[in-house]
Amino acid sequence: MARLEINSVSKAFGAARPADGLSLAVEPGEIVAVFGPSGSGKTVLLRMIAGMFEPDDGDILVGGRSVVGAPPERRGIGMAFQNFALFPHMTARDNIASGLRARAGGGDVAGRVAAISRLLKIEHVLGHAPRELSNGQKQRTALARALIGNPDVLLLDDPLRNVDAKLRYEMRLELPNLLRRGTAAVLYVTQDYREAMAIADRIAVLIDGRLAQVATPADIYAQPASVAIARLFGDPTINLAEVSPVAEHGMLLATVAGARMRLGAADGAAPAGACWLGVRPEDLAVSSASTDDAIPARILAITPMHEKAVLLLRLADGTEWLAALPPDAPQGAADDAVFVRFAPDAAMLFDRATGLRIGASHRLKAA
Amino acid sequence: MEHSSLAGRIFRGVALTLILIFFMFPIVWIFLMSFQTNEQILRIPPRILFEPTLANYEALISGQLRTAAGNLQISFMRNLFNSVVLSSAAVLLALLLGVPAAYAFARFKFRLGESIAFTLLSFRFAPPLLVLLPLSLYYQELGLNDTYFGIVWVYQLIALPLILWIVRGYFEDISPDIEHAYRLAGHSWREAFTRIAVPLAGPGIAAAGLLSFIFCWNNFVFALILASADKQPVTVGALAFVTASGIQYGQIAAAIVLSVTPTLLLALYAQRYLVEGLSLGAVKG
């Protein structure tokens, strides 16, 4: 049982600052996904914890003990690499057992290897060399190797990046249970927001070496701290429009492509000046009936995606928006004139200058 | 390959045979010469069929060289022994020094690292004869003239840069993540070096070791200057076959066959390490 604590850690490589005052705590048994676009510093953070780089500044604690400066083998850390990093000259069995032999110095190595490989369904390939394994089996072997020593901290560096789509779905379902078996504090790096949302208890969004938001998956999706985060979560991505909202009769109103849209109740934090209006594609309703609270638009294209249909719309002012509709909803056809609506509480407002969500400042503190 | 026409296959067979004959002929001819007397060899036209004799090998092994002008003492077996000792010791020393150094150059960035690596390579730029003159003076001062250690040391000029630069490339090709993974599993860097890096660079180490062995084995000029008769390798010892009464072609051929054998055996032994593509499939592209 050990808590992982990262205290204002910074790291620079020349002009690049992949870590800029990062602070994050992961409780034992908790899975925190580190999510961010490529080059945002996710891997560097993991490697500092594992001891491949030392931070320039700040401290990293495992179970209250600083591990900065300690050699990797004494940090109590298990890690699964994106490229698997299996030992090519050893069988899968020896790969998995390598951690145990060094730590426990014998013990019931065979029994524990058998147990973990049964759990990961790779018992039948234990005698094979890594080059004889499929990517999925390699990934499971690498996971087994990371898990078998019951490390205090488990670092997973985009472990599903190199496995095929079907296996990725399977693993997304299996992994949370697998990782929660122990009491390790799990840090899970991924570039796929769906994976982060499926696996993690909390998501830490890393942008340019800084933590932009740390919150539960549901909170991040519904209450993104900034327009940048809102754009990272969701497929299709969130629709944006430049607006300058005004308060009228206790309601916040904004003009979108000529239509007056209601954006929810105007509370104390009424926005001043230019804003981004964000509406998720699945919050849009499309119909052929005109009302005064609907944006006139034209359908440019329809992509049926079986579980949903995605419509590319051109609003009256030329802005292109996407709408994701249930497949059984009436969709119309390309080039149809339609009207787009959304519920006032589906609208998110972001300050155009800072990109921060308006009325969400208290949520940032929770990070 | 499978869909090539009959003509194509015949052409390929003929071409391969011609190339094989071109490269193998000198070696086969020398092998045949080693079983003939000088008179048989110098017969014109030469014959493929002859009555084989083991006289050349007997002469080499017994050390008695029979020429028209009488018996000569030669120390071929001693030279062969020297060659084995000198080349093996030189390659072993170069591996002990060069493999860890190659690892350091591959994995760590340190001050003057590239300059040191390049300096070691630059030893190969200078013509050996230029280096030898000052070196022989130093060796006389240091008392290293005509010692096994002195020659093994000077052979480092041949073997060390070769091993360093070849093996370095192999270490650089191993993903550092593999070593990181091994260390996170609870092993020290020393264990990661000996159990992960060295085995994975095995084919490269074998290739570099074999090449430096061949270069040391075939070296002539260092030992010619720095060693006297009882420390000289076969390359220098072969001079003894040029006698007052002519060149002993039969014995030379036998000497070549004998002196090629150790290198050939080593190459055959090292071959399986050379072709073993261990790192295949370890790390995804």
From TrEMBL, chain B:
Keyword Transmembrane helix listed: yes
GO CC terms, sorted: plasma membrane
Lineage: superkingdom: Bacteria
Main location class: membrane
UniProt keyword list: Cell membrane, Membrane, Sugar transport, Transmembrane, Transmembrane helix, Transport
Ranges where the ABC transmembrane type-1 domain occurs: 80-270
Family, similarity comment: Belongs to the binding-protein-dependent transport system permease family.
Name recorded for this polypeptide: Carbohydrate ABC transporter permease
Naturally occurring in which organism (per UniProt): Bradyrhizobium elkanii
